[in-house]
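Example record

Each entry pairs one chain with its bound ligand, S-adenosylmethionine.
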Amino acid sequence: MEAPNGDPGQQVPGDGIAAYDLPKRIATYDADMDIMHPNRDHMLRVAVGLLPFPREQDFLALDLGVGTGCFSQLVLEVFPNARIIAIDGAASMLEIAAVRLDAFQGRVEFRTGDFRDLEAVIAPSERGKLVISSFALHHLDRNEKVEAVARCTSFLEPGGWFLNADLVRSDSPILRNRYQELRVQGIMQRAEDSDPRFRTSEQTHSFLEAMEAREGDQPLAAAEDLEILQVAGLKQTGIAWMEHREAVMAGTRHPALAGNPSGGGGL
Ligand SMILES: C[S@@+](CC[C@H](N)C(=O)[O-])C[C@H]1O[C@@H](n2cnc3c(N)ncnc32)[C@H](O)[C@@H]1O
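Structure tokens for the complex follow.
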């Protein structure tokens, strides 16, 4: 995604991992997310609210791009017997996540790894009921995303769920421009003059453009992302929430509804 301040000159251009592996830069990551993505918390709650699992269920989950740990934290709080393998390419982010998730010791295992090579991070024998990801998969191109989601599908047990809260891109240039205008206005309001990056509309536009280029952001249209979930083998796919350039998508590993004829909250 889209993060923080820091010196752009220190980064590898267009690299979604290197951009987050700078301790100085990620120090304000969560505060910046509140300014730039105020829907994040709501999106994560919408996603977790979809899960039909009983609260006491003991299951293993993967978090792709755990970052500072917000999505994992919510799952661990809502499901007290859940365990998570938390994956990220940036060791600096994992250090922050380890502090945030300290209270859940024994239930989280941190692994440094690249979504583009999940075979190296997840053993073939490892299986679980849930894969979560937030604001991370838009760093991959289409083929990389298909491969990563396909690996997640094979991690999932039948009836397991895949939940992704991420950026999407409108196909319409008019809507894209309008979303960007509204986004810039919102960021400036929330930053309230106190942040030199966001004092004027021009500064805010340039900051966002430079950041997205540095981080190699490549969000796809929501329809393309849904198709990727299907190509990667997920069933019952859908968009659970969407606003402007952010969406929550879900899919399940077939047979999603087996043994649960009442529906039980399934998609
Ligand atoms: C914007 S942050 C999102 C973090 C967190 N999930 C959240 O919602 O705030 C994106 C994360 O994905 C990680 N990331 C980006 N590309 C990656 C890749 N190819 N492999 C592993 N991690 C990657 C970054 O290091 C960063 O921690």
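The chain has nine helices and seven strands.
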